[in-house]
Amino acid sequence: MQWRGSGFVVLSWWYLVAGLAAVGVLFIAFLDVRWGGRIVAAAFFIGA
Questions:
Q1: How far is it, in rounded angstroms, from Cα 23 to Cα 34?
Q2: pLDDT for 29-42, tens place per residue?
């Protein structure tokens, strides 16, 4: 369900990127700094 040119696609895309960044931050906080850094970097790379 993807409509080109609608704001919905962009919004859902940014929610995905923000969610990935949040997961990375949680990784840094609780689990592993190296993996968390990679996840956050990947999120920003995808969102750029």
A1: 13
A2: 777 777 777 878 88
